[in-house]
């Protein structure tokens, strides 16, 4: 995943949260900011997916995860995807059994 520097002004009260989390997790503030940014982006992408404004493939691309991980993330939020993870896994198993013949 490519990264890009971006100047950002963070309100003091939010920096208190970042600093507290960094101390608690024994990590640096930059890492915590990235984690929090990703968590917010994940919530937003999952909302778009639940509203059917983006496809599962596009959601996976935006979050830089594979299709199966995206289905698991959606499932944890109660978002139905088509096919379901179980259906996808059954399809994979069927494909594997056909290839073994």
Give a quick precis of the structure:
This protein is mainly α. The protein contains five helices and no strands. The chain has one domain (12-100).
Largest sheet: none
* Portion in strands: under 5%
* Sequence stretches where pLDDT stays below 50 over 5 or more residues: none
Shape: elongated
Percentage of helical residues?
55-70%
From the structure above, extract its key features.
mainly alpha; elongated; 101 residues; 5 helices
What does this structure look like?
The protein is mainly α and 101 residues long. The protein has one domain (12-100). The chain has 5 helices and no strands. The protein has helices spanning 12-25, 29-50, 56-63, 67-76, 85-100. Helix 1 (12-25) crosses helix 2, helix 2 packs antiparallel against helix 3 (56-63) and helix 3 (56-63) packs across helix 4. The chain is elongated and about 60 Å long. The mean pLDDT is 91.
């Amino acid at each position: 995943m490519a990264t890009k520097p971006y100047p950002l002004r963070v309100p003091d009260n939010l920096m208190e949260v970042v600093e507290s989390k960094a101390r608690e997790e024994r990590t640096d503030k930059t890492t915590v900011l990235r984690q929090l940014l990703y968590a917010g982006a994940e919530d937003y992408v999952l909302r778009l997916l639940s509203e059917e404004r983006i496809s599962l493939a596009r959601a996976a691309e935006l979050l830089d995860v594979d299709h199966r991980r995206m289905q698991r993330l959606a499932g944890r939020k109660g978002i139905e995807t088509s096919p379901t993870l179980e259906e996808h896994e059954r399809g994979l198993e069927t494909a594997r059994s056909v290839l073994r013949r």
